[in-house]
Design brief:
73% of the residues lie in helices and 1% in strands. The chain is mostly helical. The protein has three domains: 44 residues; 106 residues, no CATH class; 221 residues, MetI-like (MetI-like fold), CATH 1.10.3720.10. A hairpin with a 5-residue loop joins strand 1 and strand 2. It is a multi-pass membrane protein.
Length: 414
């Protein structure tokens, strides 16, 4: 017995056990490494590129380097220095590709309207002459287009001469950097993104509430059924997952039009006197989104409800509680985790929706994702698109952080 005791507590055995534990850890890391690499390549790297592009401003800094340096000490209120005119001509003359000049023109045009035609007209007219002094270059440039005397174009160049800028992010929350310095709120008629963000949250909240109202009784009913019947009905719940979103949206367009099945049914049942407008407005968007996202609410609720013992409710009723009061006081509080998880999942999915509002909604029903696609595919302004995507990502992370805080508080109180 003494020998066995010594063997059990010997340093050699401890080293052997530590080696086994280390091998288990390395094996676990090796098994999860492919997943980690996949997440790094498909999630973290794109998110990092998104965040970088939201603050990157390469067009002016890359192509108008000399001009930016000439305007570095300019107070942005007095006429620009003469050297800036010569630097601008030299920078534009050094651009070999017309697409690069177009990128500069588009970027400046977002700051000062008319800059695109001004820059491209000057670019096509180069060279202005050989061995010109800065004063002569200035006169030639003003003779070519007198708009070069306007401060707003030079202010736009000076403002964007740095490679990194907060302008996209500020614009995404209806703020701006003033040409003379400092940050201010944009003009009331230009405050569009705050309204779009509020509209996105409003539509998402309405969709989440409707999904909860429809999913809760259905999930409760499924949880009370025998396993065989519940599994069969759960397949029907999951059927929307097997159908393309575009197909479902197209089906709703057919159903919700003025001569569609929904309007005909409501009119034939005398619920409506005439067909209602259910397409290209908020109603159609909410109906289609609720239909698409309803399974995401049912599944978390069902999984939580199946774990709630039915004896709790029967015990409350047997102790004298009315059935309805027992349901809301005993049963519902035990399903809070499912309600929270389902609501969070549906809400996060809703705020990123693009196809459904674009096809079924009107101009005042488009959500933030629509404008991200607009800046990406139409305006070719990736910086603004990434800034709006960053705002959407930040809102999602904040929402998730609030949810985690609430859940943690409830668990600690419980």
């Amino acid at each position: 017995m003494t020998t066995a005791t010594i063997a059990i507590g010997s340093p050699a055995l401890k080293r052997s056990l530590a080696l086994v534990e280390q091998r288990k850890r390395w094996m676990a890391i090796a098994l999860t490494l492919p997943l980690l690499l996949f997440l790094l390549a498909t999630l973290l790297v794109p998110i990092g590129a998104l965040l970088q592009r939201a603050i990157e401003n390469p067009e002016i800094a890359k192509s108008l380097t000399r001009t930016g340096a000439a305007l570095a000490d300019w107070d942005r209120t007095s006429p620009p220095p003469v050297a800036a005119f010569a630097a601008l001509v030299a920078d534009l003359g050094a651009i070999s590709e017309g697409s690069d000049a177009g990128a500069v023109a588009r970027r400046l045009n977002t700051e000062a309207s008319g800059a695109r035609s001004l820059v491209m007209g000057t670019y096509r007219a180069l060279p202005l002459g050989d061995k010109l002094t800065p004063e002569q270059t200035r006169e030639k440039l003003l003779a070519l287009d007198e708009r070069w005397a306007e401060l707003r174009y030079w202010q736009a160049i000076a403002k964007n001469s740095s490679r990194w800028t907060p302008d996209y992010l500020l614009t995404a929350v209806d703020l701006k950097r003033r040409a003379e310095g400092g940050i201010g709120v944009v003009e009331p008629e230009q405050r569009v993104f705050s309204r779009i963000l509020l509209r996105t949250f409003e539509i998402s909240l309405v969709v989440t509430l409707w999904c909860l109202v429809l999913a809760y009784p259905l999930a409760y009913w499924l949880s009370t059924l025998p396993a065989r019947r519940a599994n069969v009905l759960m397949i029907l719940v999951l059927v929307p997952f097997w159908t393309s979103i575009l197909v479902r949206v197209a089906a709703w367009i057919v159903l919700l039009q003025r001569e569609g099945l929904v309007n005909k049914s409501l009119v034939s049942l005398s619920i409506l006197g005439e067909p209602a407008t259910l397409l290209f407005n908020r109603t159609g968007v909410v109906i289609a989104m609720v239909h698409i996202l309803l399974p995401y609410m049912i599944l978390p609720l069902y999984s939580v409800m199946k774990s709630v013992p039915p004896t709790y409710l029967r015990a409350a009723v047997s102790l004298g509680s009315p059935p309805l009061a027992a349901f809301f006081r005993v049963y519902v509080p035990q399903t809070w985790p499912g309600i929270g998880a389902g609501a969070l999942l549906v809400f996060i999915l809703s705020i990123g929706y693009y196809v459904t509002p674009a096809l079924l909604g009107g101009a005042d029903d488009q959500m933030l994702s629509y404008y991200i696609a607009q800046y990406t595919n139409v305006d070719i302004n990736w910086g603004m698109a990434c800034a709006l995507g960053t705002v959407l990502l930040t809102a999602t992370l904040l929402l998730y952080a609030v949810y985690r805080r609430v859940v943690k508080t409830e668990l600690s109180l419980g």
